[in-house]
């Protein structure tokens, strides 16, 4: 029998500033391809054609207790990679005790800052939606996925998935 690695500890950094003890929850970006049906003449059925990344994957939502002036000062950024966030998680298997370090780095800008409900004496929490243009997932020091949308970088497990495409368009 084997047990899965579960998140035991985490931290979130905003431009290097630690939110240890302040981060309530992080909704990590999902990975999804944009696949469209194609059925050409003479084909028995449809196949899904890969058209790059799905539109909805470029967001990361996170929550902080209270209110943070740093986030407010970052609102309205002019560039698509204005600010860096780093999620650091420690996952552990309860049958072996083995741990894994998981790190997700994104660069982007905040699309939405939701202050939630404000009621004296109740818990308050900000929800921030950050739209990223750069993403890197590292597990135990190995880069698994790296995506840089404006620079046409798409690496999966050390393989450059877009090297030939960049070459074909003169980059």
Helical percent range? under 10%
Quaternary structure type: single chain
Mean pLDDT, to the nearest integer, reads: 95
CATH architecture group name of the domain at 5-30 and 50-142: Roll
Structure report:
The chain has helices at about 70-75, 165-170; strands spanning about 5-15, 15-20, 25, 35-40, 45-55, 60-65, 85-95, 100-115, 125-140, 140-150, 155, 160. It has about 170 residues and is mainly β. It has a domain at about 5-30 and about 50-140: Hcp1-like (Pnp Oxidase, Chain A), CATH 2.30.110. Strands 1, 2, 3, 6, 7, 8, 9, 10, 11 and 12 form a ten-stranded antiparallel β-sheet that branches. The longest helix is centred in the middle third of the chain and has 6 residues, at about 70-75. The mean pLDDT is about 95.
Q: Would you spell out the secondary-structure blueprint of this structure?
A:
Blueprint: E1 5-14, E2 17-18, E3 23-27, E4 33-38, E5 47-53, E6 59-65, H1 69-74, E7 83-93, E8 99-114, E9 125-139, E10 142-148, E11 153-156, E12 159-160, H2 163-168
Antiparallel strand pairs: 1-2, 1-7, 3-6, 4-5, 6-9, 7-8, 8-9, 9-10, 10-11, 11-12
């Amino acid at each position: 029998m084997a047990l899965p690695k579960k998140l035991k500890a985490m931290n979130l950094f905003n431009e290097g500033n630690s939110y240890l003890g302040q981060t309530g929850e992080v909704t990590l970006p999902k990975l999804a391809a944009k696949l469209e049906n194609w059925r050409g003449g003479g084909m028995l059925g449809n196949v899904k054609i890969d058209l790059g990344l799905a539109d909805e994957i470029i967001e990361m939502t996170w929550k902080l207790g209270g209110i943070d002036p740093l986030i407010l000062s970052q609102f309205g950024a002019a560039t698509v990679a204005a600010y860096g966030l780093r999620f650091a998680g420690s996952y552990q298997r309860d049958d072996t005790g083995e741990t894994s370090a998981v790190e997700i780095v994104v660069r982007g800008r905040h699309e939405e800052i939701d202050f939630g409900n404000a009621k004296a004496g109740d818990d308050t929490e900000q929800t921030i939606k950050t739209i990223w243009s750069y993403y890197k997932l590292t597990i135990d020091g190995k880069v698994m996925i790296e995506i840089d949308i404006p620079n046409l970088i798409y690496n999966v497990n050390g393989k450059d998935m877009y090297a030939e495409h960049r070459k074909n368009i003169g980059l």
